[in-house]
From TrEMBL, chain A:
GO terms for molecular function: acyl-CoA dehydrogenase activity; flavin adenine dinucleotide binding. This is Acyl-CoA dehydrogenase. The keyword Oxidoreductase applies. The lineage of its organism: Bacteria, Pseudomonadati, Pseudomonadota, Alphaproteobacteria, Sphingomonadales. Belongs to the acyl-CoA dehydrogenase family. Pfam families: Acyl-CoA_dh_1, Acyl-CoA_dh_M, Acyl-CoA_dh_N. Residues 6-120 form the Acyl-CoA dehydrogenase/oxidase N-terminal domain. It comes from the Bacteria.
Automatic annotation (TrEMBL), chain B:
Residues 131-225 form the Acyl-CoA oxidase/dehydrogenase middle domain. GO terms for molecular function: flavin adenine dinucleotide binding; oxidoreductase activity, acting on the CH-CH group of donors. This is Acyl-CoA dehydrogenase. Belongs to the acyl-CoA dehydrogenase family. Residues 237-389 form the Acyl-CoA dehydrogenase/oxidase C-terminal domain.
Length: 379, 394
């Protein structure tokens, strides 16, 4: 597929850019942050996102979604990144929807996907246990019990965990810690006995939670996919997350870059615009190149997911690794080139840096994704 | 694909089958086997000459140029079919030429009808080998300060001055040259674009030896060289526009070097030289460097692809050529550094009995020039700052 947006995708991009700029700009982010909002996002906004077809971006039309695919999801994420918009887009519309699409039975799809698309169901993926992303490290156990399983363990960094109506939990039904075989995914009711969820306030003011499972009984019908074979589903969901986070980071990078270049054109020192200094011009010009590279890898990764390309995992890790490094550079350069005011809370550039930091860690940084990519390539 | 295009493919395949000599379908083993054409070119074999002559007669050395100027007159789609058919039989390039890459596009855009009819077919057929006279000892990054003069003597120009970094000046038949025709106006406005025969009285050349050893570069001297007035391209004093147009071409070319070919990847070289341990390159720290380089290299290759696809889709690509030149050459330098690290002491070899001995160290040294020639990295960053970012005073 050509590395360029088609007409439909260009329309999604334009409508997403307009929507988030108008409905969820950084002022909205600040209001939620400063009021320590208990939900962590605006439910009315999420409803509007559903009406726009954003919540159901991956959900096929037959299940009430808009079926724009991963390129569409990435374009929405990019606009979210540009505006630092808060919503359960990643947790519900991307991670959970992908897991259900890949691993769900017809009954499960029919039960959950329409509600995701309509904005009536929030879901969260509870996979990570270590502080550094290591998805095959699953120590949480699922022991056979009654007509189902009993879950025990602790999950951390569960995005939107404290508001989710349903959790997707990775637990071990066989094998040893670190094995990819033996992992099973379960649909868990967060209100079930033995589930305790604590919100974790993070540097980027986004929702994350710690989920403790203590003898939580789940029904056999709530297994997502096959017992012991959850890894492939988890991997695909995480790859979707990686590619869409790359897209969000692209928005963060592009916005930071543009804001910074604008600042270079307006700030006077020594009687001239600081953008006339070659030392700063070269840094801005280099950053321009890096943002263009991030745009290319991100589009390729999203297309690969849409096409079912057998290199989709490689491209997802490539995009996440490169996109994260570019977001680091763009936001750090942004703060430095803004000078002192870049360090103030009043200016937005610092908010972008915080988001970039968190997005880089989520589902693996360049160390994780570079290593993964190399192993997939045979070195 | 349309029926007409399918038919073109089968005709092309049949023609290539009949006309591409077997020897020209084997991989080229050294730069000495590159065909440059020209009055004095020594072909390595009859097959090499036949291949150039046959492709040249068909206009397929320049498939998209108009037939009236010696080209193939092919559409973009047909040209794509031709190049995929050439790849399919692993055909060597029939003709490499600065005439094809640089002068031709400039003449097509700025040349008079007479100039196009005269010069372009010679280029297409490989009859005349061209070199480029741009840089001077005092005019590198500040190219527009060039001082080689062309004085108007009524029926001819009298050219005096010196050029440097003229690739293959000692082998070329003609030169396209930037000269100053008006020293009284601002530097960008007094430059003209002149074509002349390197066999003219008063032209001499001397080779330049680089840190990597021998090189194609020369110094070129002009001592009262008489050039007919009709050899000026475009308008007197407007040569800088042509120069800028060509530099953009050159930057795209240099930026695109070393991508997309079928060489061993760096990871494959590392696996061969260092070995694998549990499926990963045995030197963990070096592997990390390789991974980071490969990520950037892949991201760059995808960006090249995106720029091409964007242009094909009829959307503007903006002033991206400076970016490609800057990033592509910096990456290639980094790549050569890493290959040297992977090679260890083997990489330091300067000469030896085996074919390829010394190639790596010389290639590493040669690659240092990538970010200097055709506009330095810093000049390209200036151009991005000015044209793309529109920063003040840039």
């Amino acid at each position: 597929m050509a590395l360029v947006l088609n007409e439909d995708q260009a329309m999604i991009r334009d409508s997403a850019e307009g929507f988030f700029k108008a409905e969820a700009p950084t002022t909205a982010f600040r209001k939620l942050r400063d009021s320590k909002d208990a939900t962590g996002f605006d439910r009315a906004l999420w409803k509007k996102m559903a009406e726009m077809g954003f919540a159901g971006v991956l959900v096929p039309e037959g299940h009430g979604g808009s079926g724009f695919g991963y390129v569409g999801a990435g374009l929405i994420q990019e606009a979210i990144g540009r505006n630092l918009s808060l919503s359960p887009m990643l947790s519900t519309a991307i991670l959970a929807a992908t897991a259900l699409l890949v691993g769900g039975t017809d009954e499960q799809k029919a039960a959950y996907l329409p509600k995701i698309a309509s904005g009536d169901l929030l879901m969260a993926l509870a996979s990570d246990e270590k502080s550094r992303h290591t998805p095959n490290h699953v120590a949480t156990t699922a022991a056979a019990s009654g007509n189902g399983f009993k879950l025990n363990g602790t999950k951390s960094f569960v995005l939107d965990g404290h508001v989710a109506d349903k959790l997707i939990v990775a637990a071990r039904t066989s094998g040893a810690d670190g094995d990819t075989d033996g992992i099973t995914l379960f649909l868990v009711d967060p209100k079930a006995a033995g589930v305790s969820i604590a919100r974790q306030p993070m540097v980027d003011s986004r929702n994350a939670a710690k989920v403790v499972l203590n003898d939580v009984q789940v029904d056999g019908a709530d297994v997502l996919g096959e017992v012991g074979n959850g890894w492939a589903i988890l991997e695909r969901a995480l790859d979707a997350g990686r590619a869409c986070l790359a897209a969000e980071m692209l928005g963060v990078s592009a916005q930071s870059f543009e804001t910074t270049v604008d600042y270079l054109k307006t700030r006077d020192q020594f009687g001239v615009k600081i953008g006339s200094f070659q030392a700063l011009q070269h840094r801005a010009a280099h950053l321009f190149c890096e943002v263009e590279l991030a745009r290319s890898v991100t589009l390729r990764a999203l297309q690969a997911l849409d096409e079912g390309d057998d290199r989709a995992s490689i491209f997802a890790s490539l995009a996440k690794a490169k996109g994260g490094e570019v977001a680091k550079l763009a936001t750090n350069e942004g703060v430095q080139l803004h000078g002192g005011i870049g360090m103030t809370d009043e200016f937005d550039i610092g908010l972008y840096m915080k988001r970039a930091r968190a997005a880089r860690e989520t589902f693996g940084d360049i160390a994780f994704n570079g290593d993964r990519l190399a192993k997939l390539m045979g070195y | 694909m349309s029926d007409a295009l399918e038919q073109f493919r089968s005709e092309t395949r049949a023609w290539l089958e009949a006309n591409c000599p077997a020897e020209m379908r084997t991989p080229q083993t050294s730069e000495d086997e590159t065909c440059w054409g020209g009055r004095n070119f020594k072909f390595t074999s009859q097959a090499q000459k036949d291949w150039m002559d046959r492709m040249g007669a068909k206009g397929w050395t320049v498939p998209e140029w108009p037939k009236a100027y010696g080209g193939g007159g092919l559409s973009k789609e047909e040209a794509k079919v031709l190049s995929s058919e050439l790849r399919r039989i692993k055909a060597r390039s029939p003709l490499n030429s600065f005439g094809i890459w640089m002068l031709g596009p400039a003449l097509l855009k700025f040349g008079s009808e007479e100039q196009k009819k005269h010069y372009l077919p010679q280029i297409a057929r490989g009859e005349i080998r061209w070199c480029q006279g741009y840089s001077e000892p005092g005019s590198g990054s500040d190219l527009a300060s060039l001082r080689t003069s062309a004085e108007d003597k009524g029926d001819h120009y009298l050219v005096n001055g010196q050029k440097v970094w003229t690739s293959y000046a000692d082998k070329a038949d003609w030169i396209f040259c930037l000269v100053r025709t008006d020293p009284t106006v601002a530097k960008h406005h007094g430059i003209s674009f002149l074509l002349f025969d390197m066999a003219s009285p008063g032209v001499s050349t001397a080779p330049i030896k680089l840190i990597s050893g021998a090189s194609p570069f020369c110094q070129t001297f002009f001592d009262n060289v008489k050039v007919p007035k009709e050899n000026l391209v475009g308008v007197p004093g407007k040569g800088w526009d042509i120069a800028k147009y060509l530099l953009t071409h050159e930057r795209e070319m240099i930026g695109a070097m070393d991508t997309g070919d079928a060489r061993e990847t760096m990871a494959q070289v590392a696996a061969r030289k260092i070995g694998l341990e549990n499926g990963t390159i045995a030197d963990a720290a070096l592997r990390t460097d390789i991974i980071r380089h490969e990520i950037d290299a892949w991201a760059f290759a995808l960006t090249m692809e995106r720029v091409k696809d964007t242009a094909k889709a009829g959307q503007g690509v903006g002033a991206l050529s400076s970016m490609l030149k800057y990033y592509g050459t910096e990456l290639n330098k980094q790549r050569m550094e890493l290959l040297m690290s992977i090679g260890g002491s083997d990489g330091l070899l300067w000469e030896g009995d085996n074919k390829g001995d010394g190639d790596l160290s010389r290639g590493w040294l040669r690659s240092r020039a990538n970010s200097i020639e055709g506009g330095t990295s810093e000049i390209n960053l200036n151009i991005i700052a000015k044209r793309v970012l529109e920063l003040p005073g840039a």
